[in-house]
């Protein structure tokens, strides 16, 4: 099953055409009992009931402080309900799997995250909103408020839908945990310990990063052909103190990725014409 198609089908069946989409309000319409209670070791669960004797149950950890996170957790469990309920009847989902795109987590958890993103931020509503916004945390915060979703899930959705050459990187314990490139972002992200010159590294040491895109040497974040000592990229890092994470938006303003993708040969006598793009005011400090 395609998670996005299943989420869209559910929205159509329920007649939902506006934001915000609140999973707690959808559950009674699907004969699902919604409950919040303190949970240990996981943030959400689904108990499937395949009979007329009672309703299925979605539970969300009451200890979650952020409402957007509760919304995504419930939407994640609705994803299991729509996609996986014929295969098993009990799902217990950890904090580390919900909202994450770490390739090491189970495929069914990734599918539930994709379902949740489409349910809470439907493409037919979100695409026009993203198209008229430039990449940046200010814009993502605005969208987050509109859809009542977390900054993490909203940033992932923004990166997925935008035509801007940007990438979201999530760091934990001073290491790259996972990243989500947009369709126009093609450089390779380095895994492992963060480079000391990055704003993300500084954030882990209590230094507030600048609240705008700032130039940084590209090899602090990127690797691969075309990344030379003079190459630069734009970084905007945001500490997520309650999660022990730093979220970073990288913006490939100079098109670093295009060289190797186009089969570029690094010949000294070859001239390449390139016109730099116009800087938008939100991408640099005035």
Architecture blueprint of SSEs:
Elements lengths: L2 H12 L8 H4 L5 E6 L6 E4 L8 E6 L5 H17 L6 E4 L13 H14 L2 H9 L5 H11 L3 H11 L4 E7 L2 E7 L6 E2 L2 E2 L5 H6 L9 E4 L4 E2 L8 E9 L4 E7 L6 H4 L25
Parallel strand pairs: 1-3
Antiparallel strand pairs: 2-3, 2-4, 5-6, 5-12, 6-8, 7-10, 9-11, 11-12
Defining key terms:
286 residues, alpha+beta, four-stranded mixed β-sheet, 9 helices
Question: What does it look like?
Answer:
- The structure is a single chain.
- The protein has 286 residues and is α+β, with helices and mostly antiparallel strands.
- The protein folds into 2 domains: 3-120, no CATH class; 164-283, no CATH class.
- 31% of the residues lie in helices and 21% in strands.
- The strands form 3 sheets. The protein has a 6-stranded antiparallel sheet with strand order 8-6-5-12-11-9. It has a 4-stranded mixed sheet with strand order 1-3-2-4, with helices on one face. Strands 7-10 form a two-stranded antiparallel sheet.
- A hairpin with a 4-residue loop joins strand 11 and strand 12 (245-251).
- Helix 1 (3-14) runs parallel beside helix 4 and helix 3 packs across helix 4.
- It is elongated.
């Amino acid at each position: 099953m395609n998670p996005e198609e299943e989420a869209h089908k559910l929205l159509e069946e329920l007649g939902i055409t506006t934001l915000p989409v609140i999973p707690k309000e959808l559950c009674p319409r699907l004969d699902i009992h919604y409950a919040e209670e303190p949970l240990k070791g996981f943030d959400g669960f689904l108990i499937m009931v395949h009979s007329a004797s009672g309703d299925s149950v979605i539970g969300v950890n009451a200890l979650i402080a952020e409402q957007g996170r509760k919304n995504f957790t419930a939407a994640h469990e609705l994803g299991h309900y729509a996609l996986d309920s014929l295969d098993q009847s009990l799902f217990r989902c950890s904090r580390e799997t919900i909202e994450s795109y770490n390739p090491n987590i189970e495929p069914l958890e990734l599918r539930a995250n994709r379902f949740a993103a489409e349910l809470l931020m439907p493409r037919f509503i979100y695409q026009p909103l993203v198209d008229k916004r430039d990449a940046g945390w200010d814009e993502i915060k605005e969208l987050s408020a509109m859809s009542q979703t977390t900054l993490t899930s909203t940033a992932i959705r923004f990166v997925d839908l935008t035509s801007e050459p940007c990438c979201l990187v999530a760091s934990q314990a001073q290491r790259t945990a996972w990243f989500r490139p947009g369709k126009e972002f093609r450089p390779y992200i380095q895994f492992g310990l963060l480079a000391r010159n990055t704003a993300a590294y500084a954030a882990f040491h209590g230094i507030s990063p600048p609240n705008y895109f700032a130039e940084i040497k590209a090899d602090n974040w990127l690797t691969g052909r075309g990344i030379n000592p003079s190459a630069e990229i734009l970084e905007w890092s945001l500490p997520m103190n309650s999660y022990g994470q730093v979220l970073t938006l990288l913006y490939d303003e100079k098109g670093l990725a295009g060289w190797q993708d186009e089969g570029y040969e690094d010949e000294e006598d070859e001239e390449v014409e390139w016109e730099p793009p116009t800087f938008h005011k939100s991408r640099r400090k005035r």
